[in-house]
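Write out this protein's structure.
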Amino acid sequence: MAPSSELPPPATSSLGLRMRSGAMDSETSVRRRIAEGDTWSADAGTQAQSDLGTRDEPRARGVQTTSEEVQEDRTRRLRDRLGLVPREGQGKVRDEAAEAFMVIFETFLQRFEGDQGSDEWGARVYMRQLAQLRSDEGATVYVDFGHVMAHDERAAQALVENYLRLEPYMARAAARARTKAGGGSGDVTVSVHGLPAQQRIRELRSDRIGQLSGVSGTVTRTSEVRPELVSGVFRCAECAAEVGPVEQQFQYTEPGVCDNPVCQNRTVWTLVVERSKFADWQRIR
């Protein structure tokens, strides 16, 4: 007996859309069934499953890259160290963990006491440093890591593991404390020293990227100190509108598009030097 050329009817799909023998339902029939609620039939006995998930279960997450897993783990540990509970349904607009660290660090700068001094600040060593920035025309406060550890051990560990993320918030805290100390206004750079663990340069690996590390070695050569662009304000060459500031991502970074909706320039920019921020840069070998 010759085999039948007719294919067996396929099984009922996971979405409850049934196949007619030999051909699929027409688009009109499918729409009618969806409108009648046949898409999720309570009598089916099983939930529709696919790589997109089910009605009751969200779509399965894809495999994370190593960098994503590391960043997620660091964020979780930072929240745990600072005692923060993540809020459900909140958009990623504010970094609440970093802002909490900023409050802790500003309190540390204002209240930590070291050696007794003879001026109005007494033993508050960092308020004295910040107050002297006006007369010294400086912009750097030097912080001993051991002092941070003594003030708040959890914050100190968070600083080590999330330095790149927390460094801008440290600078903001120092600038606010500087104003309160009468040291003038302006940006402040926080230089942390005295880490208990020192590493040789050859021992540094990619897993230390973004973390605070102490490095020991022999310096044989240094370059001259040069300015490094930190954030830049750019002028559009077509409509003269100013765009920025644009944070630099370890290389010269220009705006993606002009803010002027009529212009839409994407390529031709001029750096406005007087409105941009620079930092000292030096190569050490």
